[in-house]
Amino acid sequence: MSDLIVGDDGLARCAWSAGAPEYRAYHDEEWGTPLRGDDALFERVSLEAFQSGLSWITILRKRPAFRAAFAGFHIETVAAFGPDDVERLLNDAGIVRNRSKIEATLHNARAALELPGGLSALLWSYAPSAGRPRPAARTDVPATSAASIAMAKELKKRGLRFVGPTTAYALMQATGMVDDHLAGCHVAANRL
Cα separation of 175 and 56, whole Å? Predict the structure, then answer.
């Protein structure tokens, strides 16, 4: 498989975006685009945790149901969820029904409320400085980095769960803390 694909619109994209319309839209409109805000980043932390061990397309397709089930990922609301909410979520076929991940999401909301300066500020404090070379091939894209290892360590220290270095790096990619669109990708070309 080539590192880039050319769509029916004539635009070159990172090859992972092929195969499903949801991937293409996510690639073109979200992935690698800077995202800030505590609730917005809490959603991404939560979805990355739910994705662990699953295909990202599963999460993309279930995202509307996740948003409904978790009150739009409003941190204060999710932090107030209790045992009845856990049972409700375990019975919601629209989401990934994994007790550990559901309980971690509620726990993470409570931990996020305790962060001085908020979740967004903490996460973005680990964004690497600009000037990093754009990856030329998918083999140039790491699964972790020194920053994602440090981020995961700090998040765990602050009490968050399901936030290992690989999940942290995927979060960094998804929220634009790092931009791993390959050289030659039309999104990368628009970000020069």
Answer: 15
Catalytic (active site) residue 48 = yes
pLDDT digits (tens, 9 = 90+) for 4-16: 999 899 999 999 9
Give catalytic status of residue 23 as yes or no. no
Strand partners for 12: 6
User: Per residue in 103-136, pLDDT tens?
Assistant: 999 999 999 999 999 999 999 999 998 777 899 9
Name which of 25, 35, 113, 122 is nearest 74 in CA terms.
113
23, 31, 43, 48: the catalytic one is: 48
Name the percent of the chain in helix, strand, coil, to the closest 5. 55, 5, 40
- HSE at residue 127, side-chain half, CA atoms within 13 A, is 24
Q: Coil, strand, or helix at residue 80?
A: coil
Q: What is the sign, positive or negative, of the torsion defined by CA atoms of 132, 12, 189, 44?
A: negative
71: exposed, middle or buried (Cβ count in 10 Å: 0-12, 13-18, 19+): middle
Closest of 171, 174, 155 to residue 112, by C-alpha: 155
Residue 26 among the catalytic residues:
yes
Q: Which of 23, 31, 56, 169 is catalytic?
A: 56
